[in-house]
Amino acid sequence: MEGLSILIPTYNYVCVALARVLHEQAIACAVTFELIVADDGSSDKSTVAQNEAINSLEFGRFLRRSQNCGRAAIRNFLASQAHYRRLLFLDSDMVVRSADFLSKYLATDAPVVVGGVIIGGTFTGNLRYAYEKASEAEHTVSKRQQHPYHDFHTANFMIDSQLMRQYPFDEHYSRYGYEDVAFGKNLETNHIQIQHINNPVSFEEFESNYDFLKKTEEGLRTLYQFREELGDYSRLLQYVDSLPQPLLSLLRILYRCFGKSIRSQLAGTHPSLFLFKIYKLGYYLNYKHTGTDTV
């Protein structure tokens, strides 16, 4: 059925403001639409209670999952609940800053359209902010167009519903990270066109340094688990493969000696992006060698 399904997965995050902005724009566009927010088994009951307000929006639905199923499965679930041809997926912690955000998407006709992300605000001493800000220039629309499949991200994209059901997210990616990379690879394998446009949402809230390190470590474990499938799509894996074995062994030993102190520095108030890169490499090499995340 023609129309637009706006789909927002959320976990322990209140996204009522985002839902209302999108709802207002959909009404203004005079498009047939629905807005569905799916809670992926949040542990914070207060956020769940606040998100119930989405049910009061016309054409809005707030759905709760009793257990956390992961970033891939929750998006497949949302697609299964949608009624319309176009599926617009947005992460719940994104902010829509442009008044023509929805109309720009509705003006496209490619099977998959990616709008991009910009980094908002200023957060001194926050590792996630520093990392995302430093990477921002690599994700402009011109950069994304150079490698359309390698630069697919789930924070802000639209896809044809039939295509989504034909090529769903791989639910083997049940832990944090890389389900979007695998999805982009699957689209390329099946010769599905991706159109990258300049229609970003803004990322403006960042977890603590400690929590970001935990997510990064989980993502690295996911990367190792799926290293065979993701080899050509991961710079870290390509870098590891390019280094001679003696150097890899030395890096792993250095991580064993200094990993804890580097992690403490990164969790502090003045984290170093250079040390963050070193830490990621050392963590991956140590996990690859030992199968554990202990230092």
In words, what does this structure look like?
This protein is α/β, with parallel strands linked by helices. The protein is built from 13 helices and 10 strands. The strands form 2 sheets. The chain has a 7-stranded mixed β-sheet, with helices on both faces. A 3-stranded mixed β-sheet has the order 5-10-7. Helix 1 (16-29) links the parallel strand 1 (4-10) and strand 2 (33-40). Helix 9 (209-225) crosses helix 13 and helix 12 crosses helix 13 (273-290). The longest helix is centred in the last third of the chain and has 23 residues, at 245-267. The protein is globular, with a radius of gyration of 20 Å.
The chain-level structural class is alpha/beta
**How many strands?**
10
Portion of residues within helices: 40-55%
Shape: globular
Distance between the termini: 54 Å
Radius of gyration: 20 Å
Approximately what portion of the residues adopt beta-strand conformation? 15-25%
**How do the strands line up in the largest sheet?**
3-2-1-4-8-6-9
SSE ordering: EHEHEHEEHEEHHEHHEEHHHHH
Low-confidence stretches: none
Task: Report the major sheet.
Answer: 7 strands, mixed
Helical segment count: 13
Chain oligomer state: single chain
- Rounded average pLDDT: 94
